[in-house]
Structures are given as structure tokens and as C-alpha cells.
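re: ur question from earlier - yeah i can do the single chain one, its not a big deal. heres the input i used so u can compare w yours
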Amino acid sequence: MRRKSILVVAVLLAALWTTMCIHGVSRQLPQGISYSGDEHRGVPVEFLYDLTFEGDTGRVVQQAIFDRVFRMIDRARRLIVIDMFLFNGEHGGDREYLPLAEKLSERLIEKKRASPGVEIIFITDEINNFYGAYTSREIRELRANDVHVVVTDLTRLRDSNPGYSALWRSFVQWFGTSGRGVLPHPLTSAGRKVTLRSYLKLLNFKANHRKVIVTERECLAASANPHDASSFHSNVAFAMRGAPCADMLQAESAVLELSGGPMPSSGVEPVPEGDAAVSAQYLTEGQIQRRILEEIASLSSGDRLDIAMFYLSDRTVIRELLRAADRGVTTRVILDPNKDAFGREKGGIPNRQVARELVTRSEGTIALRWYDTHGEQFHTKLVLAWHPDHVTAVGGSANLTRRNLDDFNLEADVRIRAPRGSALAVEFERYFERLWTNTAGDYTVDYSQYEDRSWLKRLVYRLQEWSGFSSY
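and the output i got, formated as C-alpha cells:
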């Protein structure tokens, strides 16, 4: 009788856990999340990128993205809204980094002091306070200088790691995360201690992963973070003016509402149209996946697909890439080898396992190269779909992973369409060809350099992607 009672209780608990898991992955999204703006024509667009590579005389660092961000801050007259995932000066190891977090913080404080009437709202992810274990120096300084800092409330988002999050929501979240820390901070070697409860919150693997800035005059969506340990990463960004910036502001207002932050009191100014043949569309969360899949599916034999990506693991995207290869679409992929992470070594999951699958199952028709990293990361997120008369570019914060594309993380990308032969299309082509062919530098290496045939790592990747119990 006692054994039967235990079995009944176990079945009921398992049913409750399963119900919570299903609810966690399918709950209704907050209003304004998974947003698709209109496709606006005549939008002035700039393509920007940062590259770290080996030149004739050693390491070369070429950066443009945060120089552009700083100019946007300087030129703003009424409004600055920034949403950045990583914003701190913490790092592990002995390497020296550029003080990006400090530079951005100082620029905003200087702007507020020089122009007190400019409204500045800074949105960021709770990883920068290590999930409530403390308040970072950068955030304290911004708040002390009348900058509105909003730490994103992620609890109403869907659970990307539902098996764990169901337990965390039931038994752990009620105890908070602050207090005297006893465990080492996993992202820094500076000796800071954090609580066990903050580690347990980390394992939900939720993030506001966006990297955007919008002012009343212009806006920018990027793959780059103002994070010292990320300061040498290779990245891309798109700067724009006009209607897409209004869409970006609307999407950021949804995050502010979700997190109890202040609503912007002013909007984006209209601008004269540029090249009518160039269009831009602002996308967030699951709308990014929808548009990328549509673009790949629209390519035919003789068309080309170029992908430069930090993480590629989403099963739906992988299936669509293989279908495109079967149709005769010329496909080239540049991936980060997943060996470096803020001064620590990684084991190559998931990119090396996905790379082997793509190359093997396409019988080599999908060409793949690795970015040749040396401690930094190839942090770029860019898809280029080349049609006979135009190119479509999709880029921003979103990796091609389940967590980034399936309405779990907060993400922000831009979809740009430009005629073949236009100045913007030429820039896209020169960028990718430079990396693929190692023009004026050593950027990429052959697929064989990091080929990984381990069946065990392949199994680990598939389990992680399916369950959500991973950081990618």
C-alpha cells in the first residue's frame, strides 16, 4: 500500500512538472515582443563592422561600431535609448582589453551633464548584476548621474530551459539572489563572490540579448556589446535613419513596459528618403527566424547564400540550408570555431558538430570556413541572400540557435534589401569576399582545421539544443 501511494505521488509530481514545462515554453508573449516592423523604402543605411585578424606585422584590430555609437550620443538633442546585453568591465584571465563599458558610461554621463534636458534610458540584462547578486559599478554610476537604468525583467518570457525552470520557479525563485556571496564569480577573476541563488537563476539561461541604440535622429542595431572582455571581437552593425528607428523605439518601449521602466517622452524625427531601391525592416525575436527561413527558401539554383555567424545550431535553419544546397544554391558559411570565451577555452560545441553535418550531408556542396580567432571571438551575425537582381541582408544580435530564434531570448535584427550593384550591395560583397579569400590579411582557415568527428560531442550538442540546457 505504501509503495502504491509513493507511486501515485510520483506520477502526480511528474504530471505537474510536465504541465509546468509545457506552460513555460508556450506561455503568451508579452505585448510588443516578437515584433515585425514594416518594410520601409528609401532608408539611409550604413553597414559597419569590427574585425580582429592577423596581418603582415601581427595582430590588427579595426573597429567602427562603437565610434559610430559615440557619435550618435554626441549628436542627440532630445532622446537616447540604449539596450545592451553585456555592459561591464569584468573579465577572467590576464589579457588586457579595451575599456568599452567605461567609455560608454563616461560618454553618457558627459552627455547628461552637458545637456540635462536629453532623456537617456539605458536598458540592460541582469547578467551585468549577476542576476541580482550585486549592482555593478557602471550601473551605479549611470544612476547617480540621472540616467534611467532599467534591468530587464525576464520572468514573463518563455522558458528556453523548461525542465530546469519549472523546478526553479516552484522552489527557488522565492528566496531572491542577493546577500553575502560565497561562490566565485564565473565571469571574472577579480575575486568577487556571488550567491548560490544567483547561480541557480543563471541556469534558466534567459537573456535580453539585444544590442541597439536609438535617438530622435538615428538608430543602430549590432552584434557588438560594450563589454571589455568582448572588445576585440569581430562584429557587424547597421546604422539607419527614419522610419525603422521609430519601429525600434516602439519595440524598446515594449521591453520598458515589460520591466516597469519609464516610457520615452519623445519620438523619432522623419528624414528625407534616400535611395528608393533600398529598404529596411526592423525585426525582433521569432520574426527574425521567420524572415531568414523565407529568404533561404526563396533562393533557387544559381543563387548564392553567404552566412557569417557566431553560433549555428537551430535544427529548422539547418534543414533549410540542406534543402537549399539540394536545389543548387551556392552556400558559403563562415563560423566561429567555438574555442574561446573570455579568456577560457571551449570545446567547439555546437559549431563543429553542425559544420560536420552540413558538409557531410550536402556532400561538400556547402562550403565552410572557420574564422581564425586568437582569444577573441568571431561574434558576427549576418545572413546574405543573393538573388539575381538584389541582395537581402539580415543581421544584428541573433545567432542561428533555438534560444535566439524561437521567442525565448530578446533579440534585435535588421533586414536590408538592396539592388545588386548598389553601393550597399558592393559593401556586403567586399566584406564577405575579404574574409573568405583572406584578402589583405589572414581571416579564415579551411574546414579541416577544426573538423570534429566526435560522436559524443555530437550527442551532447543535440541534447543541449533540444533541452535548452546550454548557454547558446
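Residues 32-259 form a domain with the Endonuclease; Chain A fold (CATH 3.30.870.10). not sure if urs matches, ping me
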